[in-house]
Amino acid sequence: METANLTLRTLVVVDGGAAIAVLAFLGGVAAKEKVDFAQVGLVAGTIKWFAFGVALAVFGIALSYLTNLATVEIASSQINSWDHPHVADGPKTKFWRHTKRAFMFSQS
Q: What is the pTM of this model?
């Protein structure tokens, strides 16, 4: 679980850094006296792919957070007792189990 979270955060940093590097490169090219704007347009088109990568990574982080939230809510909604089976499902436990499965399914 922690490895997946670290991977998604790394993707945000790498894609965001690549987009910033492309913008810095375009700024340097635009500062020149003779600029071929057709070439600049081609390079600028790559920024959308890096932005798409950042958006997907952030979406993955959000799904991971919601899955963890559902897991905590499952544990919080269960009723503890001194009698066997000691832990029984509460009124909202079934809802949170289905919610967790939905988030886990959407991540795969």
A: 0.77
